[in-house]
Amino acid sequence: MDLIVRAEAGGVGTVWAVMPALGLDTPTLFAAALAKTERVTVGTAIVPAFTRHPLGLATQIRALEGLAPGRLRVGIGTAHARTMVDVYHLPFDRPLAQLREYLAVLRPALAEGTVSFAGEFYRVDATFPSAPNTPLLVSALRAPAFALAGELADGAISWLCPVGYLLREAIPAMERGAATAGRQRPPLVAHALAARTTDRAALLAAAREQLAYYAAAPFYARMWADAGFPLEGGAVSDALIEALTVWGDDDAIAAGLRARLDQGVDELLVSPIFGEDRDADFGGLIGVLGGMAGRE
User: Fold this and answer.
1) What is d(CA 50, CA 57) in angstroms, rounded to the nearest whole number?
2) pLDDT band at residue 295 using 50, 70 and 90 as cut-offs
3) Bridge partners of 74?
């Protein structure tokens, strides 16, 4: 919460927060942060959708919109089997099919205030007193999820996807999904890593440690292989780290982030590769992002 307050003071326009399976509840944290700030937009990246009913999430969103109208963006996603099956012991046989139904319930609940739906996973009839029309985004790694976002959501959020892969696979998939719905492609929010260091060896070591969790997940390994960066002995390669990360001094990081936008992604979600001082890493990144926002 204090980081969100600092980010607003530093001129950052949007702060995204992840929500680990057993971490703190992001919507609850956002309620406190929105009450202590005036301008900054907050976004979930992501709420693991299947941990709560879509109408339950709709009520949380309505409460947050009541606290700070128009300052919320909601990213949802399937999460993955290690969370949904190993931790929550939930069914996870057809996650994209379930996510499609989740969107079919949540999107009209937010956009219109009323929803009547009967499907395989959800059956609801509900009318709310208001419709906040909160932007609803979907996290994606592979083409089918990006296509679903293009068809039904207000955008997609990538995570640890190289820019070349996004341009070659994600954006075309979103365009196909949007065409199915007869509309324009919604925005792609592309995740990027940033490291405030000029020491390449230190960057590679810190990034490899931070990415080890993801390297152990088969779906990330498959996505990286499709992107041209297969794991090497079960670990991420130097080339992958450099494809995912902008690094150097503050000017170099800002230039690297602008270059990614120039390549064709619509927006960036930036998180730090941590060195020895996490607080300083966050503070430096706030300075870079706030400076970029001030020049737009």
Assistant:
1) 10
2) low
3) 44, 136
**DSSP code string of the chain:** -HHHHHHHHTT-SEEEE---TTS--HHHHHHHHHHT-SS-EEEEEEEEGGGS-HHHHHHHHHHHHHHSTT-EEEEEE---HHHHTTTS----SSHHHHHHHHHHHHHHHHHTSEEEEE-SS-EEEEE-S------EEEE-SSHHHHHHHHHHSS-EE-SS--HHHIIIIIHHHHHHHHHHHTSPPPPEEEEEEEE--S-HHHHHHHHHHHHHHHHTSHHHHHHHHHTT---BTTB--HHHHHHHEEESSHHHHHHHHHHHHHHT-SEEEEEEPP-S-HHHHHHHHHHHHHHHHHH-
Distances (CA, A) of 58 to 74, 132, 237, 246: 10, 10, 41, 36
User: Helix axis angle, 143-152 relative to 171-181, nearest 10°?
Assistant: 40
From 195, 98, 109, select the one nearest 138 (Cα to Cα): 98
Residue with tokens 């090497």: 232
Domain 1-139, CATH: 3.20.20.30
Q: How many angstroms separate the CA atoms of 290 and 11, rounded?
A: 4
The pLDDT of residue 220 is 97
Asked whether residue 294 carries a pLDDT value surpassing 80, the answer given is no
Provide the residue ranges of all domains of the chain, joining segments of one domain with +: 1-139
Whether pTM > 0.85 for this model: the answer is: yes
pLDDT confidence of residue 293: 85
Angle between helices 218-226 and 200-215 (to 10 degrees): 120
